[in-house]
Amino acid sequence: MKRMRQSVETTGDSDAIAVEQTLAGDRDAFRILVERHSRNVFRLAYRMTGNQHDAEEVVQEAFLRAYQKLSQFAERANFGTWVYRIAANYAIDRMRQRKSEDAQREPAGRPSEDGIERDPASLVPDAAPSPERLAQSEQLAVHMRRALNELTPAERTAFVMRHWGGSGIEEIAEALKSSSSAAKNTVFRSVQKLRRSLEPFMERRGQAKAMGTEL
Amino acid sequence: MKHPNEEELIAYHGGEVLRRDAIAEHLTDCPECRAELERIDAVLAALSSMPIPDPGDDYGERVWRQIAPRLPERRTPWWSFAGGRGLTAGWFTPRRWAAVGAIAAVVIVAFLAGRVTNRATPEPTAADVSAGNVRERVLILAVGEHLGRSEMVLVDLANAEPLDAKQKQVNISAEQRRAENLLEENRLYRQTALEQGDTGLANILDELERVLLDVAHSPKEVTPVQLDTIRQRIDTRGILFKVRVVGKELQQREETSAPVAKPDGSTKQERNKT
Predict the structure, then answer these.
(1) Taking the CB of the first residue and of the last residue of chain A, which one, N or C, has fewer CB atoms within 10 A?
(2) Are A57 and A98 in contact (CB under 8 A)?
(3) Among candidates B100, B131, B136, B129, which has minimal Cα distance to B116?
(4) B47/A194 Cβ within 8 A
């Protein structure tokens, strides 16, 4: 224990100590891990699920599962990556369940036009927006949410992990429970679909901007 | 080379290594493929600009509060209890003293809950009221002493300096051990305060627990910069001040409740308002 403490320099080392202490029966050591990694896991979960309520549920469930499976976790310094993967796995299940629930409830009960909750805070664009810019950002945000929502849970997971989480193909394949080549293909398909949905809107917007008649 | 297809360009944009040099070379000579890559980049950049709601600085703490009651206790391995140097040697380690402190706290908590001295009866008798007053005094005394010991750790930490001016690191192992010892009983008192509806006291103990955890999980030897960070965390929370205020309040409550106990819990209600 003393030797371990002396070597604490990085978050990874500190995570490894907290994991060891949790496994030794110190439940409060797990609190350190939760407080350190919750925000990162939330970012992933929000991007995958598209709404705050589901994202928060994913975060809680990811840490509960991590605690239960902690003894099976070998690379203790990489707790952040591991819990991230657990969250991705759970988020896929949650999205599939949500899609199936939405399909049963269709058309009533949808939260909004594109099926994703509106969070006023998330719609605020960058500095000093004019009413026009605000409207454009709102329109673009609606298009982007709709495009993301049209992806299958596997495509959305692959896209989020690859382009926002910086995950490797092997890691994505593990989360999707598929082969590497299938995971690679899913990443490609997700970007292709997003391009097909968004590029026409972005091009129209670019042209209008150039002509001074912004959308 | 021939034009890379869409899949290859997307993979290239994502940092794919395969055929990277060949594609890069092709892009320098092919405006068509460069334009295609720019379109891919524009879509991905727009998606990356999508804001994410900020769950707040205290998000990690909130997640912990939500999941903590659902976490099963882990059994401490017997070899950890024995300290690895024979069954008796383990009892003399600081961790064992922490266990002794925690056991004492458990006894106090059990006493407060009436599990040791009394059983609940439908109609409270004069003896019950008296026993309730005794229990409240025990809680006040026990938590007051606990806060006093915690305050001393925080004050010592605030004044910690290298033993020798030439030393670049400060040894805070003593404060760490004391913080570790205080953690378990702090948790028990916090739970008791919560069960008794004293949310004000429970909140202070919760904040104290986080600071004690920070100290207990810090390196044994810290640089002055690391020590300053720990001090700043303590200062930001204002925990030392809060501990002093509540300690004083408990002391006054103990003094006023000693001759004639107040079963109405008026002080508790006052603190819960803050």
Answers:
(1) N
(2) no
(3) B131
(4) yes
Interface with chain A: mutation pick from B5, B41, B67, highest number of A CBs within 10 Å? B67
What pTM was computed for the model?
Answer: 0.53
Note the pLDDT tens digit of each residue in A123-178. 444 444 555 555 667 788 888 999 999 999 999 999 999 988 888 888 899 888 89
**Residues of B whose CB is below 8 A from A28:** 183, 187, 209, 213
Tell me whether residues A28 and B209 touch, CB distance under 8 A: yes
> Measuring CA to CA, how many Å separate B228 from each of A94, A146, B8, B223?
43, 47, 50, 9
Give the HSE-up count for residue B222: Cα atoms under 13 Å, Cβ half-sphere. 23
**Cβ-defined contact of A6 to B50 (cutoff 8 Å):** no
- One-character DSSP codes across A24-60: TT-TTHHHHHHHHHHHHHHHHHHHHHSSHHHHHHHHH
Among the partner residues B52, B70, B73, nearest to A122 by beta-carbon distance: B52
Nearest CA in chain A to B209: A28
* Set of chain A residues whose Cβ sits within 8 Å of the Cβ of B209: 28
* pLDDT tens readout for residues B120-149: 445 555 555 565 666 667 777 788 888 888
Give whole-number Cα distances, B230 to A15, A30, B104, B223, in Å.
Answer: 18, 19, 29, 11
Q: If you ran DSSP here, which 8-state letter would residue A77 be given? A: G
